[in-house]
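Entry 12.
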Amino acid sequence: MKLLILLMGIWNLITFGMMAIDKLKAKKDKRRISEKTLLLSSFCMGAAGIAAGALICHHKTRKLKF
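Predicted 3D structure (tokens):
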């Protein structure tokens, strides 16, 4: 059980990082992480990380999908 919680925590940190990286790439007008990838990572138990990334980084807050 502890391993599952640890893995979920790590995965949510990764998804948070994905949102932060995508926000930085958006600011620098570089190639971005696709919405499909972000949504898929969210559905794979990474919703907390994606939500935190959206709130903290102010990223994709206008998108209804997120």
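Annotation: The chain is about 75% helix and 0% strand. The radius of gyration is 12 Å.
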